[in-house]
Design brief:
Chain lengths: 243, 129
């Protein structure tokens, strides 16, 4: 008994000291871009180039061209978002100006996006599962560990129908590494690296930046009144009520 | 050489762009702003968008019904809107960008509430003029 008590007394301050060193990412965060007027010290660095393998680049470029053509005609082609389908990882990390809430405990970081109420869970200090054991989905499986002041998050298991950064295609083998860090006490950066040996010629890297929103209370978002529908040409239209 | 330079510039200025929340605003005519005054038949504080349903009489007294799209509650509450800002029977004047199709729908720019207060459509959200 004495020995146990001794062990507790000796290790308790050590544990406290260790956890005090680990940053707490808990809070509500609002994504912001670079551009004019943003302090370069906190602005997100420029995104890397998206370089797809030729067989994936062709249909991707064709889709982008069709979207641009539709915009010129004053129309929008259907997207998953227009049909209220969630964005999944990693796109959910920055949806327009919607806040993202981080809730950090010793064992888990939970990330909630206000848009579509998407939730992802990052298990801390647990090993990643073999990819064949993860059912492909919108959020896959994420594990995280601290590398100094940076939380390194590893995600696998995103299904190919979930669109990636700027609509980029990906395979079941996509592997996402995020380096999440407090740049200042109130500015957070998430550097996202997407690796996919099937689809990408080289890893795609981009960084999202967030500002803390003190005292912000997250608003619920249940998509139960979607008036936008897709017509027979694949164009997004707004349903009009007649009374 | 010029195109290589342009590519380089594009790479330098390319910052990660957040995805659109729901849909783009290309369906609305942002070159036009029209003003409609009428009686609210319902105020729908919903996602992915809120809506003002409104009956608008013309000079002859004939009533036309309009569906006006707004931002989401999350976006709207950041610019002073509440779920109770409008209710059925309220008289209001709306400035909107109409649908390009000519159908009786549009995207809200500003609303004058019965209290006289004028509200926009959320910070930095969607078309204006």
């Amino acid at each position: 008994m004495k020995t146990i008590l001794y062990a507790v007394l000796v290790t308790a301050p050590l544990l406290t000291a260790q956890s005090a060193k680990t940053p707490d990412l808990t809070g509500v965060w609002s994504p912001f871009g670079g551009g004019r007027g943003v302090d370069p010290k906190i602005a997100p660095p420029p995104a890397g180039q998206l370089v797809l393998k030729p067989e994936y680049a062709k249909p991707y470029e064709a889709r982008r061209a069709a979207e641009a053509e539709a915009t010129k005609r004053g129309e929008q082609l259907a997207t998953a978002g227009s049909q209220c389908i969630p964005y999944g990882v990693p796109t959910m990390m920055a949806v327009a100006v919607y806040p993202v809430e981080f809730i950090q405990t010793a064992k888990q970081l939970t990330i909630i996006s206000e848009a579509f109420s998407e939730v992802r869970r990052v298990y801390l200090d647990r090993p990643q599962a073999p990819i064949d054991d993860v059912a492909p989905g919108y959020y896959g499986r994420s594990v995280g560990k601290w590398d100094g002041d940076t939380l390194v998050v590893d995600t696998i298991g995103i299904k190919p129908t979930v669109n990636g950064y700027r609509g980029m295609p990906h395979s079941e083998k996509m592997h996402i590494t995020e380096r999440i860090k407090l740049v200042t006490p109130d500015v957070l950066h998430d550097q996202i690296t997407i690796e996919d040996a099937v689809v990408l010629e080289k890893p795609m890297v981009y960084t999202l930046a967030y500002r803390r929103m003190p005292d912000y209370e997250m608003v619920e978002f249940v998509c139960d009144n979607n008036r936008e529908y897709v017509d027979e040409k694949g164009v997004v239209r707004m349903k009009i009520k007649d009374k | 050489m010029k195109s290589r330079l342009l590519n380089l510039l594009a790479a330098v200025v390319a910052v990660a762009i957040p995805v659109l929340a729901h849909h783009s605003f290309t369906m609305f005519d942002t070159t036009k702003q029209i003003t409609i005054t009428g009686t609210v038949t319902s105020f729908e504080w919903t996602n992915p968008h809120s809506y003002i349903e409104i009956d608008v009489p013309d000079e002859s007294g004939a009533v036309k019904h309009w569906s006006i799209e707004m931002g989401s509650p999350s976006i709207l509450q950041q610019s002073g809107w509440k779920f109770s800002s409008l209710k059925k029977g309220d008289k209001t004047t709306l400035v909107i960008n109409p649908l390009k199709t000519g159908l009786a729908g549009g995207f809200l720019n500003t609303a004058t509430l019965p209290t006289g207060k004028v509200l926009g459509n959320g910070p930095g959200r969607g078309p204006q003029k």
